[in-house]
Amino acid sequence: MAQRVMTDEVGVRFGMSGGVLFVLAALIVASGLRGTLGVVVLFLATTVLATALDTRHSLLLGLAGWAFATGFAVNTAGVLTLAQLDLLRLVVFVVAALATSRRGTLG
Description:
Layout: H1 10-31, H2 36-50, H3 55-74, H4 84-100
Helix pairs in contact: 1-2, 1-3, 2-3, 2-4, 3-4
């Protein structure tokens, strides 16, 4: 029987993924990589990280990715806005995260 490791737990992978997005958001702000390029970096990271998650956690990661992108790459100091472009970005982040998740698993 193979020994289980901590990263076998989806909640641990989700927490680590959120941490990666947090660090990326900080790097985007510190490096001045704002606007579209910063959003693209966070979008790509969100979709890649979602591949290790189930559907429910991917949905939450998509929301987190959108929040970091909107709050730090688009706006400043974590300010979230809900203009039309922000809502479109929200849909794109969530759909992409769900599309790359481990489908068919909810737990």
